[in-house]
Amino acid sequence: MSRLLVLLLVSLELCAESLGMGTVALDSWTFDKVIDKFDVSLIKFDVAYPYGPKHEAFTKMAEAAKAADILIAEVGVKDYGEKENSDLAERFKIDKEQFPVVKLFMKGKEPIDFEETTEEGFTSENLIQFIRTKSGKYVGLPGCLEAFDKIASKFRVAKDENSRKEILREAQGLVGRLEKLEERKTGEVYVKMMQRMVEKGSEFIDDEMKRLNKLLTGKLSDVKKTDMGNRINILRAFRDEL
Predict the structure, then answer these.
(1) Least crowded by CB within 10 Å, which of 54, 77, 142, 171?
(2) For residue 127, what pLDDT is reported?
(3) What percent of the chain has pLDDT over 70?
(4) How confident is the model at residue 6 (pLDDT cuts 50, 70, 90)?
(5) Where is the signal peptide (predicted)?
(6) How far is 80 from 89, CA to CA, in rounded Å?
(7) Domains parsed from the chain with CATH numbers
(8) 206, 173 Cβ separation under 8 angstroms
């Protein structure tokens, strides 16, 4: 192994520890060397020492994506002193007033901007959905299971009631084969939602999301908020493309 590669790997490991689980730091020296090794990379360009809800959302997303075959990284840009990494910001036409800016890099393609930059839109869930829809890589939303997300996707595009009932039976069979209690409970939530959609039609998804989002604005315990948030994420599996 070359000395350059050893230094690069050590640098990435140290950066990963300092930035949080699943995230590495890139700079002008390492940027191209690293992203060229990955088919898909999600990069956040931000101030050198980021903080606040958007940074927390990015970190939460990175933790959820740590098992996925993608690179999650950050570039800290300084506009003072030696202006570290300002060349990268200039290269990708990023104004510091826009920070944080998130771009999805895929081999052979132009980078794609994550455009939901309001406080409400810059969430870990929306970042994950951005990765899934633009790259085709699976990253699970909190509270979701990949096998059931794929079943939900099939259920969403099923053309008739008989097809949906057949997919529902597939989901019920999968629940019965799950060994972990927590996963079985989650699988049962998917099944109940499919049953409601068979009974009430696809409009059940939007109606239920509105109901749960309204409840989330009320006074709830942290446990209840997490549970409702997970249910909303499962509902999204029936609404959004994977």
Answers:
(1) 142
(2) 93
(3) 88
(4) very low
(5) 1-20
(6) 14
(7) 24-135 (3.40.30.10), 146-237 (1.20.1150.12)
(8) no
